[in-house]
């Protein structure tokens, strides 16, 4: 019994080692995906959350925000912006008389009114006497507006500024730390909250009498989309509320704002009985939705009266500019363009309804941990499953994560990113399966190599030439694989060995999504040495060219050096290599002592393409081969042959030659598949030989450019 166990242990360990390697590769793929997602940033997640908002826009229970829009019709009716402060004062009075709970101006008034009496008098220096005295005796427009502001719950905007921003130098005259802030914060704002050195504020006459002041900064995310609205920030070291939060505070008659701190960072702000979740930087993630039409009123209608009584009663009114040329145009998750005042109005509704979106602080870590956990489960479970469960379970799990993310958003306003765990676990699964596939391929290759050795040994004993010929044909790319390389390229190849084993070969491979590489080669000599040298040449050529060389000529020079390195038999190989751009028809050709290619136009006209080329590979060390370009029009074809065609002999000893090649290709027009070129040449050569024994391998590679 002990001896039996001893014999089975090494076998079991060896059987487990490929799976262990595959699991290690799968885990490495999961970690690489995690690092890639971290480097890529939140872009994919944000776009998913944007889609959620488009599918289920917000419809707040308390739509108390009302926008009075200074729109093009209002500008045409009242006059261009900026309006006289007297007009804005009348607008404010009308809103207050309508019962507005609070009135917020989503514009700043940093300069005195240009219609003030002293400003008008300065415009007309010739005005004198009683007329000038009467004009100067009038109250300033700013004083009239300030008197109205002082009697009503008005919130004025200000914009926080950092060094280098627009208006930063203009704001230097005002000490940001001395700007009035009516909101009383129950605690200082913690580190991490947004901070501004200065602020663009209103003139002192207005600022000193306003019921509140709020910041209107709306910095978009990196892709230019506004997803978050500032709730609180420090201006010159002084805690200051955002515009929407201040409007909600003034309208509800609340004096204090409570910063809520968790783990040393800001997690929310309290306003009366309302809790507003915010990120550590002091911004709230807004759930966007359409602005109801009944919540928007053009400013000129307010000034002209005639509106239904109580239209603004109990409303939080925001006055904003929405005309051509305004800079306050933003992109949101549900709109390519909208006005900033609409964003502020939606924010007021979200504050009053408690309808903000929540992205927990540790959400990213949790999603990454979940992804790694699922990756480990996948690495353990997938090898134990059989189809179809090996496909059903991962797909079902991904759908479950997507559904859970949607339910969390719809039901609780929680933002859970399912893409991160799906991508991490998916990378682990793909890495595992790819590694197992590679292990299987390597095992088959080992078996194939062993089979090739057996075939060679058998050839020595019972027919070396026939076995080597089979190996030679088996190394050529299958026709069905060549036809699938690119839809714009029709590619086919044909190789008819002579009685003895030869050294002809062809190959084709896809370099990238638009380039195809093809080649035809012919090794000097006959028999098994030529076939083996052909195998070496083909393998090295495929290795050198499938990486898509930037310089085809340099790649051929490097291939020449590689093949020459172990060429103890002093053999050489002719080769013609081409790279075609399937989108343009551009072809780069490099000829190493081979037959020139034949260009066949769409109507069947054929001609030889003369190439300068160079000597066969292995003939001259370090020869500087050069690539030569041609262009194929849609419908044109390119045919490459070996000397087994051009030097085929008739019973009289004549050579087949290029004129007969061109004549045989005349029937290969644009409507015929690539394979017809090789068939036509094979039939013509065999008729020319009239039953005689072929002197060499017959090889044809035909390519038709269908068009990009």
From TrEMBL:
InterPro entries per record: Bact_Sigma-Reg (IPR052016), CHASE2 (IPR007890), PPM-type-like_dom_sf (IPR036457), PPM-type_phosphatase-like_dom (IPR001932)
UniProt domain PPM-type phosphatase: residue ranges: 486-705
Q: Which GO terms describe its molecular function?
A: phosphatase activity
Q: Name one Pfam family in it.
A: SpoIIE
Against Gene3D superfamilies, the record matches this protein to:
PPM-type phosphatase domain
SMART domains, A to Z:
CHASE2 (SM01080), PP2C_SIG (SM00331)
- Give the UniProt keywords, A-Z: Hydrolase, Membrane, Transmembrane, Transmembrane helix
* Domain called CHASE2: residue spans: 44-381
Where does the sequence pass through the membrane?
362-382, 389-409, 421-438
Spell out the PANTHER family in the cross-references. Answer: STAGE II SPORULATION PROTEIN E, STAGE II SPORULATION PROTEIN E-RELATED
**Protein known as:** Serine phosphatase RsbU, regulator of sigma subunit
């Amino acid at each position: 019994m002990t001896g039996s166990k001893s014999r089975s242990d090494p076998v079991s360990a060896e059987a487990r080692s490929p799976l262990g390697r595959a699991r290690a590769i799968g885990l490495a793929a999961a970690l690489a995906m995690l690092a890639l997602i971290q480097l890529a940033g939140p872009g994919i997640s944000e776009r998913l959350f944007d889609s959620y908002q488009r599918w289920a826009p917000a419809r707040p229970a308390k739509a108390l925000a009302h926008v009075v829009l200074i729109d093009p019709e209002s500008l045409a009716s009242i006059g261009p912006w900026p309006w006289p402060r007297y007009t804005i004062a009348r607008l404010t009075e009308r809103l207050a008389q309508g019962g507005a709970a609070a009135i917020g101006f989503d514009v700043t008034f940093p300069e005195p009114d240009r219609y003030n009496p002293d400003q008008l008098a300065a415009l007309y220096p010739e005005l004198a006497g009683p007329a000038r005295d009467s004009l100067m005796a009038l109250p300033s427009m700013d004083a009239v507006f300030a008197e109205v502001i002082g009697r009503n719950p008005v919130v004025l905007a200000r914009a926080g500024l950092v060094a280098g921003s627009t208006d930063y130098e203009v704001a230097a005259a005002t000490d940001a730390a001395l700007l009035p802030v009516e909101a009383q914060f129950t605690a200082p704002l913690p580190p991490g909250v947004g901070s501004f050195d200065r602020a663009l504020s209103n003139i002192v006459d207005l600022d000193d009498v306003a019921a509140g002041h709020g910041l209107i900064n709306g910095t978009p995310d990196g892709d230019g989309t506004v997803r978050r609205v500032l709730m609180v920030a420090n201006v010159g070291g002084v805690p200051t509320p955002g515009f929407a939060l201040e409007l909600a505070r003034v309208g509800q008659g609340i004096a204090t704002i409570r910063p809520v701190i968790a783990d040393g960072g800001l997690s929310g702000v309290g306003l009366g009985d309302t809790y507003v979740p915010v990120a550590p930087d002091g911004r709230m993630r807004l759930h966007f939705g359409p602005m109801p039409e009944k919540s928007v009123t053009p400013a000129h209608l307010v000034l002209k009266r005639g509106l239904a009584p109580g239209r603004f009663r109990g409303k939080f009114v925001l006055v904003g500019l929405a005309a051509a040329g305004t800079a306050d145009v933003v992109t949101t998750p549900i709109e390519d363009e909208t006005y900033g005042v609409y964003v502020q109005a939606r924010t007021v509704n979200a504050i009053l309804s408690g309808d903000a979106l929540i992205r927990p602080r540790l959400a990213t870590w949790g999603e990454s941990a979940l992804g790694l956990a699922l990756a480990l489960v996948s690495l353990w479970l997938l090898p134990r499953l059989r189809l179809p469960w090996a496909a059903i379970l991962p797909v079902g799990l991904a759908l479950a994560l997507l559904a859970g993310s949607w339910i969390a958003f719809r039901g609780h306003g929680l933002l859970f990113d399912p893409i991160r765990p799906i991508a991490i676990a998916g990378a682990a699964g793909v890495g595992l399966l790819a590694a197992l596939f590679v292990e299987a391929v390597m095992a088959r290759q080992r078996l194939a190599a062993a089979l090739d050795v057996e075939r060679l040994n058998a050839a020595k004993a019972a027919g070396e030439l026939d076995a080597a010929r089979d190996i030679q044909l088996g190394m050529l790319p299958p026709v069905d694989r060549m036809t699938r390389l690119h839809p714009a390229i029709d590619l086919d190849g044909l190789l008819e060995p002579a009685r003895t084993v030869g050294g002809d070969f062809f190959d084709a491979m896809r370099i990238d999504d638009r380039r195809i590489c093809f080649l035809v080669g012919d090794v000097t000599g006959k028999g098994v040495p030529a076939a083996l040298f052909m195998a070496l040449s083909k393998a090295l050529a495929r290795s050198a060219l499938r990486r898509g060389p930037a310089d085809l000529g340099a790649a051929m020079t490097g291939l020449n050096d590689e093949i020459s390195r172990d060429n103890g038999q002093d053999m050489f190989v002719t080769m013609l290599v081409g790279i075609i751009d399937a989108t343009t028809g551009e072809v780069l050709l490099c000829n190493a002592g081979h037959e020139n290619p034949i260009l066949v136009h769409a109507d069947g006209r054929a001609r030889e393409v003369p190439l300068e080329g160079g000597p066969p590979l292995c003939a001259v060390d370090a020869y500087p081969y050069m690539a030569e370009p041609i262009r194929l029009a849609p419908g044109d074809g390119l045919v490459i042959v070996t000397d087994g065609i051009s030097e085929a002999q008739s019973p009289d000893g004549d050579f087949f030659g290029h004129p007969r090649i061109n004549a045989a290709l005349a029937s290969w027009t644009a409507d015929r598949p690539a394979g017809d070129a090789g068939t036509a040449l094979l039939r013509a050569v065999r008729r020319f030989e009239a039953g005689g024994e072929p002197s060499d391998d017959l090889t044809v590679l035909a390519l038709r450019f269908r068009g990009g």
